[in-house]
């Protein structure tokens, strides 16, 4: 720190030539890449009700970063509002970085949308820095189709990124001129909120003016951590490009030549590839808990499904999932013979977290093994676990999940669910509607008038061929839910009935007639 | 001499096997050994609240339970009865493989409820019984079972809380009858199954308390 205090504003001799690639409003581009939508339309990415990125078309209509969503929509009525998705941004940028890494290793990703690399190696190979930058941008265009990229080359990472921001294509700042290049830029470029608001009020508007301040005064007024920013403003970026090691390729792709038809053939042909896939993960020190299996048919149809396990996948478990997916998609998703198979580890974890203890990891793992065996007898949906979700209908509340799968995100089960029946609950819940009849004295079905009141008192109850007198009943308890959604709208009246033999029923009357929802037995 | 050897054998056996799975005390009265005996099969006359009450205690103790062949098993009622859904495995439609499924599950699930799709042959039951004895699992069968350890049935149900057009279902007072080849005669208990909260409770005989009049003012 003392060396910085001694010589502020003097470009550090260690700063190296850096090449920055910047893709303006990357979240918009990432969204367009991921969904195949048009990024030239007015698009704004919104997080916490504020615009965080917008497409050039939206910006020309007056949409700006930091606006509230409603304000942006009022500026540009046909604005497409997209929720911010950092995972997609990062994932799409990974493809761009992949294109760059094919030409030059040692890429450092600063944020999704901005990366830097050392310029020297590629520039000396291709002849000039401008040539290197253009080659990289071209590689990105051919590799991913993203055309918005800009490049900047300067001394130090900070100056290179600023050059890329100002570039129309490629901007080269010659060696030793970074300080002069940075001097006229506004202090907001430092990205420090306090300095951005405070310095202009003190009359310091540009990076050059900020760099010219005595460093002791800066340390006194803004704290010693801001001295680093002053060094950046003076063009003496002490940071070097910290290139990453490309992550190992874990996805496995298998091609079947000639195409295969039978599930057994495919599992047999895939065995070696699957074992290699698991071995590759093991070499990387990873354990896979979710795998995506992608099958391609001769007619270019693709069947994708993600599989999870509470433990880790080994080769046999992946082959099981492959067989299940083949059986499930035969005839429906896959209409022809299978030509290709791709295995992608969707969720991985450190292998150390999944190592079996010296004496095993207790009874639960044995439970898993046996249940998996039963699943291979009956199919994946043969063995279920249950949890209670939200809803007003008993069958809807008890969510059944195949063993090993993650339950779908659901509404909470705790109240309020007005219209839910009071405890105790029926021990028998019919998954399929179970037809019954509730009759009045004259033998007509009990009905409701348009206002929901009862027409005729229940006297006789008939279920599965037997008829009994009604000895107690209550209702109607109307349930009318989701009237705003035609597809999920459901309206019915509930009744509780005790029949002559002492059996108690929870009944439903809807537009199709009488059903039993459950039986208290 | 023989009695001494038998006692020795019994203590050795008890050391290897768990003593039995716990049962709510109200139901324990009806069963031989006052609990669910490992390796035994119990036949139930109804699969509803009675089954839930039998599953609740072992589940609360941390044992895994399985329910085979009951597609309309109400898991929310099970949760109310005290069954831990995290350790409950459902195989709703085992179809004709139910024997194989039960045999496989008995390796790891100590308490298994099953509804056989049809009549159970004596030979199948004997084969499964030896497997259950080997693993120490308990089988709760909805329906008849050859050589069941005990049979529990419900009789004379009375529902509280529901009138002619008003109220809602509350507790059910029911007579639970237990038969066993190891116990002479039948044993009965009057229980609330379920009570107002969906659990098992002992029915208290209604005692008319005299209303004490007290002079005031």
Brief rundown of the structure:
The complex is a heterodimer of chains A (about 525) and B (about 220). Chain A is an alpha+beta fold and about 525 residues long.
Structure in words:
The complex is a heterodimer of chains A (521) and B (217). The radius of gyration of chain A is 33 Å and the shape is elongated. In chain A, the strands form six sheets. A six-stranded antiparallel barrel of chain A has the order 15-18-19-20-21-22. Chain A is built from 17 helices and 22 strands. Among the domains of chain A are: 1-23 and 113-246, no CATH class; 252-358, 2-Layer Sandwich (Dna Ligase, domain 1), CATH 3.30.1490; 421-520, no CATH class. In chain A, helix 14 (263-283) packs antiparallel against helix 15 (315-329). Chain A is of the alpha+beta class. With 217 residues, chain B is of the alpha/beta class. Chain B has a domain at 18-149: P-loop containing nucleotide triphosphate hydrolases (Rossmann fold, 3-Layer(aba) Sandwich), CATH 3.40.50. In chain B, a hairpin with a 5-residue loop joins strand 7 (172-180) and strand 8. The longest helix of chain B is centred in the N-terminal third of the chain and has 15 residues, at 2-16. Chain B is globular. The termini of chain B are far apart. At the A-B interface, helix 16, strand 13, strand 15, strand 19 and strand 22 of A face helix 3, helix 4, strand 3, helix 5 and strand 6 of B.
